[in-house]
Amino acid sequence: MRFEKGVEVFSSAGEKIGKISRVVIDTKTKDVTDVVVDRGKDEKVIPVSLVESEDEDRLTLHETHQSVRFSRLRDDTLCPTRGGRRAV
């Protein structure tokens, strides 16, 4: 799967959850493990295992908005990148 910043994320019932702001990558396998979703007031982490489908401008989850178990983005899991910025 390919995840693009700004793509809108929807539940299985069509409810808009937010937009992709970044992804979490396993440092050993280089696989994307989670999608970080900007919900306007905060960012939440959603495992890629919940992704049902994706296309150019939409990511749809297996679950409804109420059943999605969001995780908080922990700052201590971020890695520094070139230029001093922190990345997931």
List keywords for this structure.
9 strands, mainly beta, 88 residues, 7-stranded mixed β-sheet, SH3 type barrels
What would you say this structure looks like, in words?
The protein is an all-beta fold and 88 residues long. The chain has one domain (8-87): Roll (SH3 type barrels), CATH 2.30.30.240. The protein contains no helices and nine strands. The protein has strands at residues 8-10, 16-25, 32-38, 43-47, 51-55, 58-61, 71-72, 79-80, 86-87. Strands 5-6-1-2-3-4-7 form a seven-stranded mixed beta sheet, with no helix packed on it. A two-stranded antiparallel ribbon has the order 8-9. A hairpin with a 5-residue loop joins strand 1 and strand 2 (16-25). The two termini are 18 Å apart. Mean pLDDT is 78; it is low at 81-88.
Furnish the topology, listing elements before pairings.
Layout lengths: L7 E3 L5 E10 L6 E7 L4 E5 L3 E5 L2 E4 L9 E2 L6 E2 L5 E2 L1
Parallel strand pairs: 1-6
Antiparallel strand pairs: 1-2, 2-3, 3-4, 4-7, 5-6, 8-9
CATH superfamily: PRC-barrel domain
Helix content: under 10%
CATH architecture: Roll
How many domains?
A: 1
Please, how many helices? 0
Tell me the structural class: mainly beta
Radius of gyration: 13 Å
Overall mean pLDDT score? 78
Outline type: globular
Q: In this structure, how is the largest beta sheet organized?
A: 7 strands, mixed
CATH class placement: Mainly Beta
Number of strands: 9
Q: Helix and strand succession?
A: EEEEEEEEE
Instruction: Give the CA-CA distance, first to last residue.
Output: 18 Å
Beta-strand portion reads: over 45%
Strand order of the largest sheet: 5-6-1-2-3-4-7
